[in-house]
Write a structure and sequence with these properties.
Layout (H helix, E strand, L loop, with lengths): L1 H29 L5 H23 L6 H12 L2 H13 L3 H29 L3
Helix pairs in contact: 1-2, 1-3, 2-3, 2-5, 4-5
Length: 126
């Protein structure tokens, strides 16, 4: 139990660090006006989650799931940041942009996890 907890904590630290680097990189490219970094982290995290769920199941790597899925991807994806970004847009009076952000984030993340599962099922032998 304590080993698993440590691996989740370590993965979370790695994922949070990667999220920070992603946010900073995306903001440098796209600018600070829209929370692109959070959206990129959530969509990319969903894609990776789709790939990992298949790869770990097919390769017998479920013992890595706490570290990779709960830790790394849990620390990388950003639902609380997503919620804050949405509220910030709403409070700035950018209600349409807030709605666009919510819709795009949810739809792109769902599409990304489906694509991740599909691609991994085609590539990773059963």
């Amino acid at each position: 139990m304590s080993g698993t907890l440590f691996s989740v904590a370590l993965g979370g630290a790695i994922g949070a660090s990667l999220r920070y680097l992603t946010n900073m990189s995306v903001m440098r490219v796209m600018g600070p006006g829209f929370p692109y970094g959070t959206m990129v982290a959530n969509v990319l995290g969903s894609l990776l989650m789709g790939v990992l769920v298949v790869v770990l199941a097919r390769r017998g790597g479920n013992d890595l799931a706490p570290f990779l899925m709960t830790g790394v991807l849990g620390g990388f994806t950003t639902f609380s940041a997503f919620s804050l970004d949405t509220l910030t847009l709403f409070e700035r009076g950018e209600i349409n942009l807030a709605g666009l952000y919510v819709g795009a984030s949810v739809l792109l993340s769902l599409a990304a996890i489906a694509i991740g599962v599909l691609v991994a099922r085609m590539v990773v032998p059963a």
